[in-house]
Amino acid sequence: MGDVLAFLVANKKLRPIEKPLPKLRPGWALVRVRLAGICNTDVEILRGYHAFRGTPGHEFVGEVADVHGVSRSLKKKWVGKRVVGEINVSCSAYGYRPACDFCRRGLKAHCARRTVLGIVNHEGAFAEYLALPLENLHGVRDSVSDEQAVFVEPLAAACEILEQVNAKQFREAAVLGDGKLAHLIALVLRTAIPRVVMYGKHEKKLALARRSGIKTKKVRGDASELKHIKESYGLLVEATGSPTGFAAAQHMTEPRGTVVLKSTFHGAAPIETWPIVVKELNVVGSRCGPFAKALSLLRSGKVDPTPLITRTFPMSEAPSAVRFAQESGVMKVLLSS
């Protein structure tokens, strides 16, 4: 096979190139990308987040095209299988010995020497092919469509909240933000908490949440509005993607409540810490999560993210797709190989 299409971040834009297939380490798979999702993190990368220079994209569903350095039976098991992939590539996959302290503790997502697909020193999914170790891959059953499977990575991030917080102690929770990740978080929380309320600025996005059984409240989202918001919650998830989101989250969390932070963005956020002290808040940072749980929610039908899809572009039109993804009212945009 000759060179294949991929996109590089260059001068805050996506530039198409033809490049050779990724070289595989032992125990790694070559994956043909079927669908890739555009995430807010990808947009932030184009703005300078993590100073990434390479091929972005970390949400994907694909098909294993080849596996290197494994037994014939293991290769036969994987080649041709539809897969999704965890994005943090840890010590063990690179053959580092000894493994770092985090890997020894089972915290591979925090590996001291990790690369991160499409985010940190690892070529991502805005390409026809990508490479990941077999230990990162999860097979996708026939009952789960490509359009559902492409959401597994952000859906797993939403599931992580239930790993970090005991949902059974809450009768209600709030989600700040009405974007793609906020919707997935609200859907996941609703599987464990009776009442979930989404606060957002966009009526069309809030209407989409209501169709899924989520309560909604429209807000302007500026600092002057905070004093007019009287509701407070024992559990609040901040997923606005905005530097001002944390201040609103602190204001709306009741004393001794829990704030879960999900937003990542390029740049600094204005922060006052006194509400954390005075209200004795628990502040939880939350990132990647359990793929197996996300796949289980899709198979069971408890969560269906496909109504969030606004449009699918051919992979060759990735720059246009990223521009479209930033337009007002747009939800999930996909790239199809």
How much is the average pLDDT? 93
Outline, from the CA principal axes? Answer: globular
Q: Give the percentage of residues in beta strands.
A: 25-35%
| Helical stretch tally | 12
Largest sheet properties: 7 strands, mixed
State the low-pLDDT regions, or none. Answer: none
Description:
With 337 residues, the chain is of the alpha/beta class. The chain is built from twelve helices and 17 strands. The chain has helices spanning 40-46, 72-78, 91-94, 101-104, 146-149, 152-164, 180-190, 203-211, 245-252, 274-278, 291-300, 318-325, and strands spanning 4-10, 13-19, 28-38, 59-67, 82-85, 88-89, 115-116, 129-133, 137-139, 172-176, 195-200, 215-218, 233-238, 253-261, 282-285, 309-314, 332-336. Strands 3, 4, 5, 8, 9, 16 and 17 form a seven-stranded mixed sheet that branches. It has a six-stranded parallel sheet with strand order 12-11-10-13-14-15, with helices on both faces. Helix 6 crosses helix 7 (180-190) and helix 6 (152-164) crosses helix 11. The two termini are 16 Å apart.
Put the structure in a nutshell.
The protein is α/β, with parallel strands linked by helices and 337 residues long.
What's the helix and strand layout?
Blueprint: E1 4-10, E2 13-19, E3 28-38, H1 40-46, E4 59-67, H2 72-78, E5 82-85, E6 88-89, H3 91-94, H4 101-104, E7 115-116, E8 129-133, E9 137-139, H5 146-149, H6 152-164, E10 172-176, H7 180-190, E11 195-200, H8 203-211, E12 215-218, E13 233-238, H9 245-252, E14 253-261, H10 274-278, E15 282-285, H11 291-300, E16 309-314, H12 318-325, E17 332-336
Parallel strand pairs: 10-11, 10-13, 11-12, 13-14, 14-15, 16-17
Antiparallel strand pairs: 1-2, 3-4, 3-8, 3-17, 4-5, 5-9, 6-7
